[in-house]
Specification:
There is one protein chain. By secondary structure, the protein is of the alpha+beta class. Helices cover about 15% and strands about 35% of the residues. The protein folds into two domains: about 55 residues, no CATH class; about 290 residues, Lipoprotein localisation LolA/LolB/LppX (outer membrane lipoprotein receptor (LolB), chain A, Clam), CATH 2.50.20.10.
Length: about 400
C-alpha cells in the first residue's frame, strides 16, 4: 500500500510540474525540462532532456505587423477563397488572405494557413549582407566550412512601402517574388549564384537558375533538385523562407493552436554585452548548445499554429514537414522535417528580432527580422547555422539583379 501511495504521489507531482508556466528569467535545462513539456514541442523536449542545449525565457513582446498590411487585410477581408479541387487561391487582392482564426472542423484550414504564410509581409525588398553559413560537426563543435553570401529578396507584386506600388512593371511572366544569392567566399565557390522566381500562379512551376563559378555558365534547375542539399549544407532550396515550394505540391492539414516557447527577441539589448563577430557596428549574436548549433537568444511564449505538409510527390525525400507559424506575424519560426520512414530528420529554428530593436533602417517596418537560423540534422549530428545582417525595404535591391543576364554579368 505504501509503495502504491508513493507511485500515485509521484505521478501527481509530475502532472503538476508538467503544467508549470515558464516565466521571464527561467532557464530550462536537462534537470527541469519535465516541468515545461506543455510549452515545447517533442523534438525540443528530447534535445533538452539530453542536455544538448538550454532555453532562457524572456517576457513576451508585441510585434505589430505593418500598418498598411493590416489596413489592406481589413479592406479585403472575405474576398479571397480557395478552390478545394486545385488548392488555388482565388481573387486574392492584398493583405492577409485569411485573417480568421483556423478551426479544426474547417477542411481548408491548413491550406488557408499555407497561403497566409506565403503572403505574410516581409518587406518589399530585403538585403542580407553579410550572410554567413557555418557547417558544423555537432559531436566536436568543429566548423568544417564557412561560406559568405549576399542575399536579396524582391517582391514584384503586392508591394506596400516602396514605389512603384502595388506591382513592379515589366513582369510578363507574373512573378510574385524573387530570391537571389551570390557567394563571396571561399574562393572555390566565389560568384556562384542562385536565382529563384516564385510565380503568382501556384499551378505554374517556379523558375530556378544556378550559376556555377567553376563552369562559368548558367544552368536551369529541374524541380527535383530543389530538394538536394544546397552547396553541401543541411539546407534545401525548398527550405528557403521556411518553405520555398508550391502550395500545390503539398497536402496541408491544420493540427491545432498552441502556446509554445519560440525564439523571438530584442536584438540590440541581447547582443550588446556579448562577444560576437562584427559587420561594421553590427553584432550578429551567437549560437550555443551542443556544437554551437542553436540560436543563443531568449525564448518567449507565443501563440503558434501547427501546420502539417505532406508532399504529393512519391519521390520526395521527406514524408512530411511540420511548421510552427507565429499567429501574430504569420511567419514560420520552426520546422520539423521527417524522413520517408516518418522519423525526425531535421529541425529548423529561426530567431526573429523585433524590428524596432534592430538596425535603425528596420524600425517601424512591422516586419520581424530574421537574424540567426539553424538547420539541425538530428540523424547525422550535424548543423548549418546562418548569421544574417538583414535590412528591410533596402533601396539598393533592384529588379535588374533578378535576371538571368545579371547572373552571367556578375559571374565574369
Amino acid at each position: 500500500m505504501k509503495l502504491l501511495l508513493t507511485l500515485l504521489l509521484t505521478i501527481l507531482t509530475l502532472s503538476v510540474n508538467a503544467s508549470k508556466t515558464p516565466v521571464s528569467g527561467t532557464v530550462i535545462n536537462q534537470q527541469n525540462v519535465a516541468q515545461y513539456v506543455d510549452y515545447l514541442d517533442k523534438p525540443m523536449v528530447d534535445l533538452l532532456s539530453k542536455g544538448l542545449l538550454t532555453v532562457t525565457v524572456a517576457e513576451s513582446i508585441d510585434i505589430q505587423p505593418n500598418a498598411r498590411f493590416l489596413e489592406l487585410t481589413e479592406k479585403h477581408n472575405g474576398t479571397a477563397t480557395i478552390d478545394p479541387k486545385t488548392s488555388q487561391i482565388i481573387n486574392y487582392q492584398d493583405g492577409l488572405p485569411f485573417p480568421e482564426e483556423p478551426t479544426e472542423d474547417d477542411p481548408l484550414a491548413g491550406l488557408k494557413l499555407a497561403w497566409n504564410m506565403r503572403y505574410a509581409y516581409g518587406g518589399d525588398t530585403s538585403l542580407v549582407d553579410p550572410f554567413i553559413w557555418d557547417y558544423i560537426n555537432m559531436n566536436t563543435g568543429k566548423v568544417e566550412r564557412t561560406l559568405s553570401f549576399v542575399g536579396k529578396i524582391l517582391r514584384y507584386k503586392h508591394r506596400l512601402s516602396m514605389q512603384p506600388m502595388p506591382n513592379l512593371p515589366k513582369n510578363p511572366v507574373n512573378i510574385f517574388n524573387g530570391i537571389y544569392l551570390q557567394a563571396k567566399e571561399p574562393f572555390d565557390i566565389k560568384n556562384t549564384q542562385l536565382l529563384v522566381h516564385r510565380l503568382e500562379d501556384d499551378s505554374a512551376r517556379e523558375r530556378t537558375w544556378l550559376y556555377l563559378s567553376v563552369q562559368r555558365r548558367v544552368r536551369r534547375l529541374p524541380a527535383g533538385q530543389t530538394t538536394d542539399a544546397f552547396l553541401g549544407s543541411d539546407i534545401m532550396i525548398e527550405d528557403f523562407l521556411g518553405y520555398n515550394g508550391r502550395i500545390n505540391d503539398m497536402r496541408w492539414r491544420y493540427l491545432g493552436t498552441q502556446q509554445l516557447l519560440a525564439p523571438f527577441y530584442k536584438h540590440n539589448p541581447t547582443v550588446k554585452d556579448i562577444e560576437s563577430e562584427h559587420s561594421g557596428d553590427y553584432k550578429f549574436g551567437t549560437f550555443h548548445g551542443q556544437g554551437s548549433c542553436f540560436p543563443n537568444v531568449p525564448w518567449q511564449l507565443r501563440k503558434l499554429y501547427v501546420l502539417e505538409a505532406r508532399p504529393t510527390a512519391t519521390d520526395h525525400p521527406l514524408s512530411k514537414r511540420v511548421f510552427y507559424i507565429d499567429a501574430q506575424t504569420h511567419i514560420p519560426i520552426a520546422g520539423r522535417h521527417y524522413d520517408r520512414n516518418n522519423k525526425i530528420w531535421r529541425m529548423g529554428i529561426s530567431a526573429f528580432s523585433h524590428p524596432d530593436e534592430h538596425l535603425e533602417q528596420n524600425k517601424g517596418t512591422g516586419v520581424a527580422i530574421p537574424s540567426l537560423i539553424s538547420m539541425i540534422d538530428v540523424a547525422a549530428n550535424h548543423c548549418t547555422t546562418l548569421k544574417m545582417k538583414t535590412k528591410i525595404n533596402d533601396s539598393t535591391v533592384k529588379q535588374k539583379d533578378f535576371t538571368v543576364q545579371s547572373l552571367r554579368s556578375r559571374g565574369k
